Amino acid sequence: MAKLYFHYSTMNAGKSTLLLQAAYNYQERGMQTFILTAHLDDRAGAARVASRIGIAQEAQTFAEGEDLFAKLAAVQEAAAPACIFVDEAQFLSTEQVWQLARVVDDLGVPVMCYGLRVDFRGQLFPGSAALLALADEMREVRTICHCGKKATMVVRKDAEGRVITDGAQVQIGGNESYVSLCRRHWREAVGDGGTG
């Protein structure tokens, strides 16, 4: 039975690595897959999912306002993928998450989404909020804070390494811009009365 999956975490937890591994498992068994990633994130190159450990694969992109049900219905008719993978799922709109749910329900194709849960302000991304509400199965991908505890938050830093506490929700970046922290150290970093 097809399901909508949401694998979520903070930055640098290995979400893209897990996506690429899962897609490879299907492909190794001769099954077709279809990989989508956000059009606005081209750090690994346009239309490409890449991991920090060096593995990568070509992908198709989704853009803001695009009808993903229509796009994936056409893909299903032409190629009949055994599974659809979505990287950077936090950039989906609520409507697009509902469209992915329709792909699962109406086309019978599993959809595995991978993305961030919260932004640098500790707020849910719209796509993540919708996936938390609609996904049939969810899995937290864990990474660690510098203290060794589970990291669940992320801070954004400027070019001088200072923590930024306001600004646009979306700013594409990697290790040069973001650091994953446990909640306690995130609170300390943003000046929210951390408990030393």
TrEMBL record:
GO terms for molecular function: ATP binding; thymidine kinase activity; zinc ion binding. It is found in: Cytoplasm. The active site is at residue 88. The keyword Transferase applies. Its main location: cytoplasm. Keywords: ATP-binding, Cytoplasm, DNA synthesis, Kinase, Metal-binding, Nucleotide-binding, Transferase, Zinc. It comes from the Bacteria. InterPro entries: P-loop_NTPase, Thymidine_kinase, Thymidine_kinase_CS. Belongs to the thymidine kinase family. This is Thymidine kinase.
